[in-house]
Specification:
Blueprint lengths: L1 H33 L26 H9 L4 H20 L3 H7 L4 E8 L6 H4 L15 H4 L18 E2 L9 H13 L2 E8 L16 H10 L3 E6 L7 H15 L8 E2 L5 E2 L1 E4 L7 H8 L15 E5 L5 H8 L3 E3 L16 H10 L3 E3 L1 E2 L23 H12 L5 E3 L14 E2 L18 H20 L2
Parallel strand pairs: 1-3, 1-12, 3-4, 4-7, 7-8, 8-9, 9-10, 11-12
Antiparallel strand pairs: 2-13, 5-6
Helix pairs in contact: 2-3, 3-8, 7-8, 9-10, 10-11, 13-14
């Protein structure tokens, strides 16, 4: 019995000593942690000189509300309420800025990603918008007769070959906007190229979305992202209407800290506008707006900017130069679909741009499939090959050393070019494609990987 008591006391003493030792080690670890620099191990040693002009980091809620008050009609009430909801959500959920910086990859302001805010659902919009996209007929009636007609019927049947993790969402849903911003930031992109129509206008399957821009800017700022505009081919787009719409965008949104300005070789910080389907307008019309001697010139005015034209055919490069554009992009994610989207043509296009003082912005994409809305278009499908197609496009882009790379797209679900998270889904009508064997965020991770690779290589180009 005596030996048992001695052993029991010995074990208790040993446990107490061991516990005190563990507490001592923990206290030392905590003390050392407080000495660690905020960004140790996760800094951005070579990208700082490439960032756009540093702007005020505080969100000015009063300016946001004033900008919303300028919208007229019943739409004002709905959008103001939406903005208030979004602002309150931001204030309630806003983590400290340094915490966001630690958790997410640094934004790369030379990675621009095309973004669409045209989706709607009954909860936020009273009906489905774009998810119920119609099946588009082939232009040849004989071919069209061999394919189905009608519209998609969400939420189980949507106008896409993949299915989003967020479901058939509304672009007005603040939680969706926040999720999108977080995904784009996690992918180390830096500039959102927002599809834009003038107030009251939309694509033929959508509703006007300009009223949503202030909310998108606010959430982009929360994640230290910038926003530029992808001007769509709206009705009667010409030199005069473009002048007024560029003025509208800069006057209304140019003061927001998330509004993107690009540092030029002359040291100026200018807004940038991508102009989709620019080739449908005559070079002479564009020259009125984009050349110094043009009758409607925007050059050397408070609304001067960098205008980037879409190049589809090889001959467009001469028209773009003659029109007074500042550069060209290729948009399409289908290698071989057009001259501009064919990777093997990028070197010659970059050489042409360099010799004519133009920017060349190649567009890379993870794949392409639009048979959910164009069932006859199988020949333009490009399989993702578990991410290899995307990486091949990035590799081709880096070979020409571009100043900017654009990504098609974050969420163009109709054409299957999205890098947004997608999930496996099977319904009675269709089996959706997915990213297996990888996780839903695989294309965000690949984008982040190539963003870092681009930064490192660009550092070498600039030496």
């Amino acid at each position: 019995i005596l030996n048992y008591d001695i052993m029991a006391r010995f074990r208790r003493r040993t446990c107490i000593i061991l516990l005190l030792f563990i507490l001592f080690i923990c206290s030392i670890m905590m003390a050392l942690k407080t000495l660690r620099p905020d960004r140790a191990g996760f800094g951005d040693p070579f990208g700082l000189g490439l960032l756009p002009e540093l702007q005020q980091q505080t969100v000015l809620l009063e300016n946001k509300q004033n900008s919303l008050n300028r919208v007229q009609g019943d739409t004002v009430t709905r959008v103001s309420n939406l903005h208030s909801i979004a602002a309150n959500t931001m204030k309630a959920s806003m983590p400290p800025a340094n915490k966001l910086e630690e958790e997410l990859s640094s934004p790369n302001y030379n990675f621009h990603i095309f973004y669409y805010s045209w989706f709607g659902n009954p909860q936020f919009d009273g009906k489905y918008i774009h998810w119920n996209h119609p099946l588009l007929p082939h232009w040849d009636p004989k071919i069209a007769n061999n394919y189905p007609k009608g519209r998609h019927n969400p939420p189980e049947d949507i106008g896409a070959n993949f299915y989003p993790e967020l479901g058939s969402y509304s672009s007005k849903d603040p939680s969706v906007i926040e999720a999108h911003m977080k995904q784009m930031r996690s992918a180390s992109t830096g500039v959102i190229v927002l599809s834009w129509y003038p107030p009251g206008m939309a694509d033929e399957n959508g509703e006007p979305t300009d009223d949503l821009v202030p909310v998108i800017l606010d959430y982009a700022h929360k994640y230290n992202l910038k926003v530029t505009f992808h001007i769509e081919p709206y009705k009667d787009r010409d030199d005069r209407s473009m002048y007024h719409n560029v003025k509208y965008i800069i006057d209304r949104y140019g003061g927001h800290p998330a509004f993107y300005r690009h540092k030029t070789s002359t040291g100026r910080f200018l807004p940038m506008f991508y102009v989709y389907d620019s080739y449908v307008t005559l070079p002479e019309i564009w020259a009125n707006l984009l050349t110094v001697s043009g009758s409607q010139t925007i050059r050397n005015s408070p609304y001067d900017a960098l205008f980037i034209a879409l190049l589809v055919e090889e001959r467009h490069k001469h028209d773009i130069h003659r029109s007074g554009f500042d550069g060209m992009y290729t948009y399409f994610a289908t290698n071989g679909f057009s001259y501009g989207s064919s990777h093997h043509n990028w070197a010659s296009l970059k050489a042409f741009c360099d010799s004519n003082n133009l920017m060349f912005i190649p567009s890379v994409g993870p794949g392409y499939i639009d048979t959910s809305i164009r069932p006859w278009n199988n020949h333009n499908t490009r399989n993702r090959v578990n991410g290899k197609y995307y990486e091949t496009a990035f590799s081709a882009a880096l070979l020409v050393r571009p100043e900017i790379i654009s990504i098609t797209s974050f969420n163009e679900w109709h054409e299957g070019t999205q890098i947004e998270k997608a999930i496996p889904k099977r319904t009675g009508q269709v089996v959706y494609l997915d990213y297996k064997p990888h996780k839903p965020n695989v294309y965000l991770e690949l984008t982040q990987k190539w963003s870092e690779k681009y930064r490192k290589e660009q550092e070498q180009w600039l030496m």
